[in-house]
Design goal:
The complex is a heterodimer of chains A (380) and B (83). Chain A has helices spanning 2-37, 42-59, 79-98, 105-121, 128-160, 166-206, 218-234, 237-246, 252-271, 278-292, 300-328, 332-355, 369-379. Chain A has 380 residues and is mostly helical. Chain A has one domain (2-379). The longest helix of chain A has 41 residues, at 166-206. Chain B has 83 residues and is mainly α. Chain B has one domain (20-80). The longest helix of chain B has 41 residues, at 5-45. Chains A and B meet through helix 5, helix 6 and helix 9 of A and helix 1 and helix 2 of B.
Chain lengths: 380, 83
Amino acid sequence: MESVTFLLIAVILTALAFDFTNGFHDTANSMATSIATGALSPRVAVAVAGVLNLAGAFLSTEVAKTISGGIIDDTKVSPVMIFAGLIGAILWNLITWLAGLPSSSSHALFGGLIGAVWVGSGGSAVRFDAIMEKIVIPALASPVVACLVALLATYLAYVITRRISGRTVRKGFRAGQVGSASLVALAHGTNDAQKTMGVITLALISGGVLSHGAGPPWWVVLSAGLAISLGTYAGGWRIIRTMGRGLTDIQAPQGFAAETSATAVILSSSHLGFALSTTQVCTGSILGAGLGRRLAHVRWGVAGRIAVSWLLTLPAAAAVGGTAAWVADQGDGGVALVAGVAVAAATGFYVLSRRRPVNPDNVNELPAPTAEGDTVRSAA
Amino acid sequence: MDIEWGSLGGVLGVSLGVTVVVVVMFSLGVAAWSRAESHAGRAGATRHGLLHRPGAVAAAIAVVCFAACLAVAAYGIDLIVPG
């Protein structure tokens, strides 16, 4: 019993740590363009996003029951596998953060879980058709749909306002961006905090604390909401810089169009039953906004690097998750070893990030080419 | 493996429609507002300091446009918040 308790606590803490990385990884989704255009100052932007993520976490607990159900066979999942899967997801999130790449936190989580379950219960516990349907196809469709929508919207915005003075346009669309960015943040909160609640609930069920089919207890909702909003408030400045400045030069009308498209795509996809990934929708819509303004410069090198990180997310997180599952399966010592290695790695990534820090004060500066080479090297 | 082209098309269609409506309305609102401002400036410089008629119409159009955007946003929040 005691070992179960130790493991469960490890799982819950790891899940909350994942939630934190999820938060700061995804601040960029809602706030990158608002920060880039000056609609919101960097510190205000992350505070707004943090509060709305917390609100979002309390508004909906619907997703929590389904997120774990589809892609892996829930009856074959042990707390050790959940723990290992989370470790894989956290480490991949930190690596991509260091490189400033907006990869999907959900894909990292799915990847980690798939790897851990594969090692622990064999390939039959992984439902590959569900992976195809719920992860691979949405990953291909999300950026395309969002890009098309944002492209058209941006083009129209510039056509309609072409005779208006630049100052008025900037002022008007900046004000609009405050609203559109807030909607993205709220929609994000209702989606993403659910994932961690689902994971913790799943761990409690598989550890025998909750009965099968139970919903998340209140303290799970509270702690998951707090973890993701604190993470959001911490702000993943590296990713914000990539999305707000690196991909294309964003002006206020583009930011408004990108955020409106992202909100519309996220909401319509979740209500028409074709789940799309928030990160990929937001990246696609920024790309579309870049293409929609004539003469705007899209940096395809940056877009290509982001695409590669999306391809790698699932297998990389699965590899780490699988390895962690194998080690952690050796008993409490193994769990402690995995946790220790993960903490050491996270500290290492943090120390590496301090060499070229990105913070609220320099987030809107263009990334220097030398910095890119450096982060790629240290991430490898 | 089947791709649900129908629902994917639905997502594309609905989000395209909603986004275009919001962004076009907002752009028209900004344009109308800018016109109202320039009319107001001219009126103040000339006789009574009151809004010229075209200025007032432009301001009203701007208000309607922004209100439409707010209405869509409110519907969005309604969708986000369950129940």
